Structure formats: structure tokens, C-alpha cells
Amino acid sequence: MSMDTTTARASGSTSATPAVFVDGAAGTTGLGIRERLAHQSDVIVKHIDPDKRKDPVAKRALMEEVDLVILCLPDDAAKETVALIDSMGAKGPKVLDASTAYRVAPDWTYGFAELAPDQADKIRTARKVSNPGCYPTGAIALLRPLVDAGLLPADHPVTINAVSGYSGGGKSMIESFEDGSAPAFELYGLGLQHKHVPETQLYSHLVRRPIFVPSVGNFRQGMLVSVPLHLDTLPGKPNGAALHQALAKRYAGSANVSVMPLDDVAIKNGRIEPEALNETNTLQLYVFANDALGQAVLVARLDNLGKGASGAAVQNMRLMLGLD
To answer: Can you tell me the distance from the alpha carbon of 255 to that of 109, in angstroms, rounded to the nearest whole number?
Structure first.
């Protein structure tokens, strides 16, 4: 095994600097995490020799030396590593999983720190945290406050539309866009069984399964998630200002989630593009409303590789290690 520094913290060490291991650092999320950690001096990053990365004995020995393991693996591989950590008992590190394997598991904490007023505290004390999906991050941020406020019934027939850069689609999709063989734009997931729907429904507190229509465009990263609403179908027929107030109240003081003013330039112009927040951990929420027509469109903008993946992972890591 090798490591990025000779001051690595072994299990039981008196060193105050926590150590982490990113398992699966070659994918887009793992690379993004490693890049972000390279700029943080209060965390030691350890890594395993490439020829031993699938060796459970070598992996276990390394994980005994770290405080936290971040999994950037396919679901089945993530489950194998979690089982290995569970077998370590008290020597096992905390684990942050970026796959979809545990996002709705009842014994895992969901890693959207802004989900509820006490969610960041839950993440701080958790030993197992599931990093959210990129699409659900935007959708849940828009929907959960409205459900909690009683403005949107839990059984309302919700439709979620979204577009992402191609970097969220994995190696084959990235290659197809970068070699010019992919279309400029396409809808997908039209079997209505996208893997992000269960977590979106659960953490939005919806009892009716939402319709989710994702799409991908010919740009590397960036994302827009939108929810159209007929205001006259909602309790009390709220106007756009009421929806905006509920969102603003939930995220007041948030360092990462901004509810954009109703007089924002994008709202006045009625246009918004997906790439403005690339390379950030910022999530912007918009309410586009026409009260005269009784209609509104809620929009979340984020970097699918930032707040939608690597940025959120590092945010959760810092909470779990007491570094926030």
C-alpha cells in the first residue's frame, strides 16, 4: 500500500488529522473528490496500490488506518465493500457511499445536508451516509419545503423534467458525446423507472410516485431540474410569492442553497441556462410564476458533478469528520 503523505493517521493514532480513502477514484465522481481534497490541508488522503485495489485483505488493512471511506463504485461493488467494513466491527471506518445502493436504506443517513433543519446534525453523527443523486438533489430541494409547508399535497401528481450535461452518464455516454456520435439532445428513462425516482419520492415526502423525465444535452456538465405546477390545483391556490416564501424560509442562511429573488434577471427574462454553476457546490432555486394564468415552474440549477456529486460528497465528508 502507498499513501499521499507520511503523516497518515493509523487507527488509534493520536494524530488530530483525519484520514480518508476514496475507493473507486478513477470515475468522474471519484476524480472530482480527489481534486477537491487536494486543496484541503486538514484531511489526509490515502490510496491503495492499483494492483491491490480488488484484494480484500489489502483493502481491509488500509481501511483500518482511515477514519472514513468514500465509495465511488458500482452498486454491487459498493455492497461488497460495505460488507467488508461491517465485518471489521469497531475497527471499521465511517462510510460515505456515492452509489445508488443505499440511498433509500432505512439504516443509512441521506447526505443532503439541506434536506431539513436537523439533517446536517444527523450526517455529523452518522457512520453510514448515502450521497444523493444529482437529479434528486434539485427535485427534493424544490419539493420538500412545499410539502412540509402544506402548499403541495403529498399525493399531488408531480412531474419533474430535467436536463444534464453528458458527464453524468458514465464512460460510454461521455465517449459518445466527445467523439461526436451522440445526438445533440435526447430524452431517456422513458420506461419511467429511472433509478433516482425512489429517493426523490421518499425524501420529498411524496406518497404518489412522480413522473420523472430526464434528458441529456451536448455539454459536459451542468444541470437544470424543473417542476411545473398548476397553482389552482393546490390547497389555497397559492401564488408565486407564496411558493418563493416557503423555499426562502427553508434555506435562509444556507451556505450552499440560494433561493433567487423574484426580481432576478433570469426570472425577468424568462430564461435560464445550465452551466453557470459549474465547478461549484452551489444550488440555485428559482420560482417562475404567472399568477394571472395560475401557473408556475420551479427550477433548480446545479453542477451535476459539484453539488450533484463530488461537491456534496466532500461537504458530507467534512460533516462526518467534524471539519465543517
So the answer is: 21
Q: Is 134 a catalytic residue?
A: yes
Closest CA to 112 of 74, 68, 144: 144
Catalytic residue among 113, 134, 140, 247: 134
Span 6-42, pLDDT tens digits: 333 334 333 589 999 999 867 888 889 999 999 889 9
**CA distance from start to end of the chain:** 29
To the nearest whole number, what is the mean pLDDT of the chain?
A: 91
165 strand-pairing partners: 217
User: What pLDDT digit, counting tens, does each position of 244-260 carry?
Assistant: 999 999 999 999 999 99
C-alpha 97/C-alpha 193 separation (Å) is: 22
Give whole-number Cα distances, 117 to 120, 252, 254, 318, in Å: 7, 10, 10, 18
**Order of all β-strands in the sheet with 2-3:** 2-3, 44-47, 19-23, 68-71, 94-97, 128-130, 109-110
Q: Among residues 196, 203, 225, which one has the least CA distance to residue 303?
A: 225
**Structure confidence by residue, pLDDT tens digits, 206-219:** 999 999 999 999 99
